[in-house]
Design brief:
Elements (H helix, E strand, L loop, with lengths): L1 E2 L16 E3 L2 E4 L1 H10 L4 E4 L8 E4 L2 E4 L19 E9 L5 E12 L3 E4 L4 H13 L6 E2 L4 E3 L3
Parallel strand pairs: 1-4, 4-6
Antiparallel strand pairs: 2-3, 5-6, 7-8, 8-9, 8-11, 10-11
């Protein structure tokens, strides 16, 4: 399941468990949406609405990436600092619907929307920081090589 939900921009890096607003528009509650999607059987939920990275968590057997940022944009998008960081998530889903392994890779973008791998792994460090801050109990463990696992 993918979700374009939540406030936008660098001020929206953290994932609140409440409805969000952006430009006067109701933009939903990504935590509640992810919970509903996983309770309905989703194995993987990927968000991108904030256009910046947000933390990752496990909800039961499902992996939730609340926002992977912008993989590719164009034209007038602000790509400075947090806005130019993103991640690519690769996951294997077993025949029983459970995520059996997952890995995340950092990307960066420069104007006018050119994407490249991020050799400094800045986005990966952002994901670790945001996950620890926003999901202290359910947060995914993200290793320095990008491997994603459950907390023991």
């Amino acid at each position: 399941v993918t979700m374009h939900i939540g406030a936008e921009g660098a001020i929206a890096r953290h994932t609140p468990d409440r409805p969000e607003m952006f430009a006067g528009e109701r933009r939903g509650n990504s935590v509640a949406f992810a919970r509903a999607a996983t309770e309905a059987g989703a194995s993987l939920v990927i968000g991108h609405g904030p256009h910046v990275l947000r933390g990752m968590e496990w909800l039961g057997r499902a992996l939730v990436a609340h926002s992977l940022g912008n993989l590719l944009t164009y034209g007038p998008f602000n790509l400075r600092d947090f806005n130019g960081r993103a991640a690519v998530l690769c996951a294997t889903i077993g025949s029983d619907g459970e995520v059996t392994d997952a890995i995340v890779r950092s990307t960066r973008q420069r104007p006018p929307g050119i994407v490249s791998a991020d050799p400094d792994a800045v986005a990966l460090r952002d994901l670790v920081e945001l996950t620890l801050a926003d999901f202290p109990r359910s947060g995914a463990l993200i290793a320095p090589d990008g491997a994603i696992s459950r907390r023991p």
